[in-house]
């Protein structure tokens, strides 16, 4: 090789080495900056968690002294906001918060309970004051623990978790970590069981008896498919009060809970369309009549390929129950039942009282807004309670508005605004 060529090769290699060194240095600097940013974000998330839980504790501590309805509403709104902020901040900590099920559940319950008391228009009852005191005591204990752990972090007696090390399965930690301390506290934390009409309330069981055994569940599935029991194959089963068994018979699958048949589906390809939508609707109504599910009204229908899908809602005393929906599909080649979904359907009638007439309920509408139509509905509250309402469909300019007025209190219960 000529001398000139060697010099050029050495020059190019030197430049390449320098470039790689600079690139490695930049990458190392960027990685360090990223680690510092992630660490600061984790610290800020924990600081927000501490601050929100501490504020929640302070807000709930005011509840025993509130006698004015407006002040009670304000306390509940503040408590709901603090609980939501604490739950949101805790979910961004650098470890899996699903492990902290009890602590997360406490924040959800505290926020939901406070939300359920908002707008009740009256001061707290003695029972509500006692429950709020218990929530305040639990929040204060939780807050004290978080503050102690924050001091340990500041004194370097505790380290913040690292997602990077967890992903790389690197166990270089030499001391206790925040997640471990919170898990230890979680094991000793006793969640509250509150009875209220809300999403996380401990509602009473609606049915104390009449639950199916596994043998009865198989019999119910066989009767639903009109097949002998020995023709069913058990696919899977789940234990517990809401236990389920799923069976297969050819290309059909049926799932039965302890309350009865919940769903049915099949995998066969539907052939050429032979039935009209009207004939499919009649086939669906004939099937429901055989099942003796009570009064049902067709809410919606649509066609998907060669299957006609129907949604029926339960009707009671002339009122629709939109939260109790039964969905089924009819194959348009032979009119057979193609799908069935009763997971959101309850055939049992509910006890409601229509103490307020429709004319009185209209007085709850805002001035200048006249209803175009009205209907009676029985809605389900977040806690599962039946609420009879008058639903008034109105028009405000180009915007559609539906206002539901409680038939028990005469007050507005729910407002839905369209585009």
Shape: extended
Rg, rounded, reads 31 Å
Q: What number is the mean pLDDT? A: 85
Oligomer: single chain
**How many DSSP H or I helices?**
9
* Side-by-side strand order of the widest sheet: 1-2-3-4-8-7-6-5
* Sheet of most strands: 8 strands, antiparallel
What proportion strand?
Answer: 15-25%
Give the termini distance in whole angstroms.
Answer: 79 Å
Low-confidence stretches: 167-172, 205-209
Using DSSP, what is the number of strands? Answer: 12
Order of helices and strands: HHHHHHHEEEEHEEEEHEEEE
Helix percent reads 40-55%
By secondary-structure content and strand pairing, the structural class works out as alpha+beta
